[in-house]
Amino acid sequence: MLEVAQLSKVYGPDPAARPAVADLTFDVAAREFVCILGSSGCGKTTMLRCLAGLEPVTSGHVRLRDEVVSGPPREMAFVFQDYSRSLYPWMTVERNVAFPLRYKGVPKQEARAATQEALEAVGLGGRGRSYPWQLSGGMQQRVAIARALAYRPQILLMDEPFASVDAQTRAGLEDLLLDVWQRYEITVLFVTHDIDEAVYLADRVLVLRAPAHVALTVEVDLPRPRNQLTTKGHPDFGRLRSELLAALSPAGTPQ
Ligand SMILES: Nc1ncnc2c1ncn2[C@@H]1O[C@H](COP(=O)(O)OP(=O)(O)OP(=O)(O)O)[C@@H](O)[C@H]1O
């Protein structure tokens, strides 16, 4: 579904400058859940911005369903880490969620139904008339997820979406995401710093090294549906986590 081939990105006019992304190649299948791990500054956000058509690439290409991505594709939605900046404070929750649908040309009544359904999917069916600032951080992030879902994307890109919420809320959001991923049959590309989160969510984890390229691919064959207690207590969970931890440590030498 998504094909990234020999992608490189150099910021600024000097082609000899150090690239943020270099020779990055991977594919994502339809309905796959892929997590991306990598140390701070290795180029993960730059990669996502190139994939989303928000940043011009220096060389290589990104294809979504065989079409080269050259601007934000209509079938893609994004959820970023900073929910406080991603929601409009002067709009109600409902209007925040419905906002991108107007640009997609979705008829009003259909947009209203999609908004309500998405808010219910994230457990906020009764909060449509609230304003973002009346909600907790975790609830605001759920609104951002609802907005992405209401848009009915085929592919969802998420950049550390749960990094700024507490551990308990985070676990709830992970389970919510797995539930909606299965229910809406979407493809997810999820960037995180958290190894446990990557193993818990993914079908496959890619470890990036700077400048962003795939240093290691780990298949996660843990059974689904996953559960915070049984999945994290599964013997393979520890094995996968150790493998990824070794790859991410400065001395790691992934093949
Ligand atoms: N707009 C920009 N202009 C110039 N350089 C940039 C720009 N954005 C990022 N960079 C540089 O590109 C490199 C990769 O940054 P990027 O934010 O993509 O990494 P990251 O892996 O997402 O980091 P983090 O995990 O800390 O969010 C860094 O060296 C950064 O300084």
From TrEMBL:
CDD domains: ABC_NrtD_SsuB_transporters (cd03293). Residues 2-235 form the ABC transporter domain. One of its GO terms (molecular function) is ATP hydrolysis activity. It comes from the Bacteria. Gene3D superfamilies: P-loop containing nucleotide triphosphate hydrolases (3.40.50.300). Pfam families: ABC_tran (PF00005). The keyword Nucleotide-binding applies. InterPro entries: AAA+_ATPase (IPR003593), ABC_transporter-like_ATP-bd (IPR003439), ABC_transporter-like_CS (IPR017871), ABC_transporter_ATP-bind (IPR050166), P-loop_NTPase (IPR027417). Keywords: ATP-binding, Nucleotide-binding, Transport. This is NitT/TauT family transport system ATP-binding protein. SUPFAM superfamilies: P-loop containing nucleoside triphosphate hydrolases.
